[in-house]
């Protein structure tokens, strides 16, 4: 799976919605950024895309 964050729109740790919701801990934190640290664990549940308020996370199979 490919999981990408658009940093032009992402609010980082002020949001953390995708990180908090992901059931398989795909996301991590680096400084004030949310990063994709574990894309291999993604189950394509689409929760992160559905909840992102900034439309900043994209998941591709
Ligand atoms: S839910 Fe969207 S805005 Fe929030 S941290 Fe994740 S990618 Fe960024
Ligand atoms: S699609 Fe689901 S499993 Fe994959 S990164 Fe988003 S929340 Fe996590």
UniProtKB/TrEMBL annotation:
Signal peptide, first to last residue: none
Gene3D superfamilies: 3.30.70.20
Keywords: 4Fe-4S, Iron, Iron-sulfur, Metal-binding
Protein name: 4Fe-4S ferredoxin iron-sulfur binding domain protein
Matches recorded under InterPro entries: 4Fe4S_Fe-S-bd, 4Fe4S_Fe_S_CS, Fe-S_Ferredoxin
Pfam family, one: Fer4_10
Transmembrane segments: none
Domain 4Fe-4S ferredoxin-type residues, every copy: 1-31, 32-61
GO MF entry, a single one: 4 iron, 4 sulfur cluster binding
SUPFAM superfamilies: 4Fe-4S ferredoxins (SSF54862)
Upper taxonomic lineage: Archaea, Methanobacteriati, Methanobacteriota, Methanomada group, Methanococci
């Amino acid at each position: 799976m490919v999981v990408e964050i658009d940093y032009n729109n992402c609010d980082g740790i002020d949001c953390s919605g995708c990180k908090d919701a992901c059931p398989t801990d795909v996301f991590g934190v680096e400084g004030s950024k949310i990063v994709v640290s574990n894309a291999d664990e993604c189950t394509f549940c689409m929760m992160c895309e559905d909840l992102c308020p900034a439309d900043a996370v994209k998941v591709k199979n």
